[in-house]
Model the fold of this input.
Amino acid sequence: SMSIDDNNNKRHKFWETQPVGQYKDVGDFTLIEGPIEPPTPLSDVKQEPYNLPAAYEWTTCDMDSQETCDEVYLLLMNNYVEDDENMFRFNYSKEFLRWALRVPGYYRSWHIGVRAKASKKLVAFITGVPARIRVNDEVVKMAEVNFLCVHKKLRSKRLAPVLIKEVTRRVHLENIWQAAYTAGVVLPTPITTCQYWHRSLNPKKLIDVGFSRLGARMTMSRTIKLYKLPGSTVTPGFRKMELRDVPAVTRLLRNYLSQFVVAPDFDEHDVQHWLIPRDNVVDSYLVESPENHDITDFCSFYTLPSSILGNQAHSTLKAAYSYYNVSTKTPLPQLMNDALIVAKQKDFDVFNALDIMHNESFLKDLKFGPGDGQLHYYLYNYRVRSGMKPSELGLVLL
Ligand code: NHW
Done:
């Protein structure tokens, strides 16, 4: 892997031209927090889409259309993110994509595809959704950019910068000038770098498919015993979140997220969209005090399976990803242990979490192991003081 110096020296022909923190700025504490460049007058924003190679055309993807949703699903299923060893590929479900893209106040024009002119086949994709993100004391309107994908046969042709410029243009047309995104690759310049941790729920399958390995001096049966979980949750008053809980959960979450340097500014509409349970998409649980019915704790995870590439016995890895968790009364490790128990009941193979927010307080105790993947967080056209730690981050992107 590359050292910091190699990254500093690596040229980024596209990213060097963009209003993002550049490597030369890292560690310069004189730079003030805030926009890197001011907004331009809306009338100066380019009115026509950027040029694509002649054989391709832009398309706006209507995620309400079953047909378009299928096309997007298949493009991502076959061409989206893989691990370094090309053993697994994210397999976001259609319901998940609809949830992730049709958010409160979304712009259809930010769901951008590229088609081959002749065949009309969808060959590339990028999306933005609007969000209010707080950075220290400022709440900033941003686009959360995700699902950047170029068909495997069209890689390394500099199509990605065109997609990024086009989504930027369409975000600018809505008078929004900042964005947040994550990537497994190092670009100029992460606001922080996080690590994934994995908690085996079905260790035998994880070992069989090569996701994990039998530990030193471990047998399969000892491993299965090590990761065994109780059959039911232990916290009194632990139950699924319902629509009527939205006001209480919003209060709990807003209060909790206020301590982080970067976090979403959720209102009740956002909480209703992002946290009300949806089958096979997002699960949310809370603790309602059996005495006074106060909502004191909350935990959630989303469902993101991965295709297992080239395994005879298994085709998908069912993974749960830790989302937003708040504890005020139940200790966080106990709350998350209950989350593991329900995830196991729902037949997930693994529970993943980043080392953000207060997650470090439960990862080791609950037998999560560090993964090899890193996730870098970025802001576009917004400078944050350098040296932010993952534990100061309160934002989860899908
Ligand atoms: S990260 C997941 C990205 N997707 C995948 O990894 C899927 C599999 N890979 C691919 O489809 C979550 C292709 O490899 C992609 C690159 C399309 C990734 N972010 O076309 P070229 C997100 O979706 C730069 C940003 O030749 P390619 C977040 C690369 O550094 N930039 O490459 C998305 C180089 O630029 P440089 C990335 O392999 C956030 C240039 O692309 C990148 O055929 C987007 C090479 O282009 C990545 N993940 O296609 C930014 N990967 O300067 C949003 C590569 O180094 C910014 N590159 O020469 C905000 C916009 C909104 C602003 C509003 C005010």
Summary: DSSP finds ten helices and 17 strands in the chain.
